[in-house]
Specification:
- By secondary structure, the chain is of the alpha+beta class.
- The protein has three helices and eight strands.
- It has one domain: Roll (2,3-Dihydroxybiphenyl 1,2-Dioxygenase, domain 1), CATH 3.10.180.
- Helix content is 23%, strand content 41%.
- It has an eight-stranded mixed β-sheet with strand order 2-3-4-1-5-8-7-6.
- The longest helix is centred in the first third of the chain and has 12 residues.
- The radius of gyration is 14 Å and the shape is globular.
Length: 132
Protein backbone atom coordinates (compact mmCIF):
# COMPACT_ATOMS: atom_id res chain seq x y z
CA UNK A 1 0.00 0.00 0.00
CA UNK A 2 2.76 2.50 0.94
CA UNK A 3 5.52 3.15 -1.61
CA UNK A 4 7.66 5.70 0.22
CA UNK A 5 7.79 9.20 1.66
CA UNK A 6 6.35 11.81 -0.69
CA UNK A 7 6.62 15.03 1.30
CA UNK A 8 6.58 16.70 4.69
CA UNK A 9 3.93 19.37 5.25
CA UNK A 10 4.48 22.48 7.37
CA UNK A 11 1.60 24.83 8.21
CA UNK A 12 2.34 28.58 8.32
CA UNK A 13 0.36 31.79 8.69
CA UNK A 14 2.25 33.83 6.06
CA UNK A 15 3.36 31.82 3.02
CA UNK A 16 5.57 34.51 1.46
CA UNK A 17 7.43 35.07 4.73
CA UNK A 18 7.87 31.32 5.22
CA UNK A 19 9.16 30.92 1.65
CA UNK A 20 11.84 33.53 2.30
CA UNK A 21 12.80 31.84 5.58
CA UNK A 22 13.12 28.40 4.01
CA UNK A 23 14.98 29.79 0.98
CA UNK A 24 17.50 31.33 3.35
CA UNK A 25 17.82 28.22 5.53
CA UNK A 26 17.86 25.59 2.78
CA UNK A 27 19.44 27.57 -0.04
CA UNK A 28 16.72 26.31 -2.40
CA UNK A 29 14.13 27.94 -4.61
CA UNK A 30 10.45 27.09 -4.71
CA UNK A 31 9.86 24.32 -7.27
CA UNK A 32 6.08 24.73 -7.47
CA UNK A 33 3.41 27.03 -6.05
CA UNK A 34 -0.32 26.39 -6.22
CA UNK A 35 -3.64 27.59 -4.78
CA UNK A 36 -6.28 24.98 -3.97
CA UNK A 37 -9.45 27.11 -3.71
CA UNK A 38 -11.69 24.17 -2.81
CA UNK A 39 -9.53 23.53 0.28
CA UNK A 40 -8.80 27.21 1.02
CA UNK A 41 -5.03 26.76 1.01
CA UNK A 42 -1.99 27.98 -0.88
CA UNK A 43 1.03 25.70 -1.16
CA UNK A 44 4.70 26.10 -2.04
CA UNK A 45 7.09 23.19 -2.55
CA UNK A 46 10.84 22.87 -2.08
CA UNK A 47 12.45 19.73 -3.53
CA UNK A 48 15.63 18.12 -2.27
CA UNK A 49 17.04 14.62 -1.95
CA UNK A 50 14.00 13.02 -3.58
CA UNK A 51 11.59 14.47 -1.00
CA UNK A 52 9.51 17.62 -1.10
CA UNK A 53 8.91 20.09 1.70
CA UNK A 54 5.35 21.42 1.37
CA UNK A 55 4.67 24.78 3.00
CA UNK A 56 0.93 25.37 3.30
CA UNK A 57 -0.98 28.44 4.36
CA UNK A 58 -4.72 29.09 4.75
CA UNK A 59 -6.37 31.49 2.31
CA UNK A 60 -9.42 31.92 4.55
CA UNK A 61 -10.65 31.13 8.03
CA UNK A 62 -12.69 28.25 6.54
CA UNK A 63 -9.48 26.36 5.81
CA UNK A 64 -8.71 23.31 7.95
CA UNK A 65 -5.13 24.63 8.02
CA UNK A 66 -6.39 27.84 9.65
CA UNK A 67 -8.04 25.76 12.38
CA UNK A 68 -4.88 23.69 12.79
CA UNK A 69 -2.72 26.80 13.25
CA UNK A 70 -5.19 28.36 15.69
CA UNK A 71 -5.24 25.19 17.77
CA UNK A 72 -1.61 24.00 17.52
CA UNK A 73 0.37 26.89 16.08
CA UNK A 74 2.66 26.87 13.07
CA UNK A 75 4.84 23.84 12.42
CA UNK A 76 4.73 20.23 11.31
CA UNK A 77 1.31 19.58 9.79
CA UNK A 78 1.59 16.14 8.18
CA UNK A 79 3.73 13.39 6.72
CA UNK A 80 2.75 12.29 3.22
CA UNK A 81 3.40 8.86 1.76
CA UNK A 82 2.95 7.69 -1.84
CA UNK A 83 0.40 5.03 -2.68
CA UNK A 84 -0.70 3.65 -6.02
CA UNK A 85 -4.44 3.61 -5.21
CA UNK A 86 -6.04 6.01 -2.70
CA UNK A 87 -9.49 4.38 -2.94
CA UNK A 88 -8.04 0.92 -2.28
CA UNK A 89 -6.07 2.35 0.67
CA UNK A 90 -9.27 3.95 2.00
CA UNK A 91 -11.09 0.60 1.95
CA UNK A 92 -8.17 -1.18 3.65
CA UNK A 93 -7.91 1.48 6.36
CA UNK A 94 -11.65 1.30 7.06
CA UNK A 95 -11.35 -2.48 7.39
CA UNK A 96 -8.61 -1.89 9.99
CA UNK A 97 -10.88 0.64 11.79
CA UNK A 98 -8.42 3.47 11.12
CA UNK A 99 -10.20 6.82 11.18
CA UNK A 100 -10.06 9.16 8.22
CA UNK A 101 -9.81 12.91 8.57
CA UNK A 102 -10.49 13.83 4.94
CA UNK A 103 -10.66 12.42 1.46
CA UNK A 104 -10.23 11.04 -0.98
CA UNK A 105 -9.95 14.48 -2.57
CA UNK A 106 -7.99 16.32 -5.23
CA UNK A 107 -4.58 17.58 -4.11
CA UNK A 108 -1.69 19.65 -5.43
CA UNK A 109 0.14 18.58 -8.61
CA UNK A 110 -3.05 16.89 -9.84
CA UNK A 111 -2.89 14.16 -7.18
CA UNK A 112 -5.56 12.32 -5.20
CA UNK A 113 -5.09 12.50 -1.43
CA UNK A 114 -6.46 10.87 1.69
CA UNK A 115 -5.80 11.96 5.29
CA UNK A 116 -5.74 9.57 8.25
CA UNK A 117 -7.02 10.94 11.53
CA UNK A 118 -4.17 11.76 13.95
CA UNK A 119 -5.88 9.98 16.86
CA UNK A 120 -5.16 6.69 15.10
CA UNK A 121 -1.52 7.50 14.28
CA UNK A 122 -0.18 8.74 17.61
CA UNK A 123 -0.94 12.41 17.01
CA UNK A 124 0.53 12.64 13.50
CA UNK A 125 -1.66 13.59 10.53
CA UNK A 126 -0.76 11.17 7.72
CA UNK A 127 -1.57 11.90 4.09
CA UNK A 128 -1.61 9.26 1.38
CA UNK A 129 -0.86 10.62 -2.10
CA UNK A 130 -1.70 9.00 -5.42
CA UNK A 131 -0.12 10.49 -8.53
CA UNK A 132 -2.47 10.61 -11.52
Amino acid sequence: MIQGLDHIGVAVRDLDRAIETYKKILGLDVSHREILPERNIEIAFFEFGGVRLEILSPTSERSPVHGFIEKRGEGLHHLAFRTDDVEKAERALKEMSIGLAQGPADGAHGTRVLFLHPRDSHGVLIELVQKK
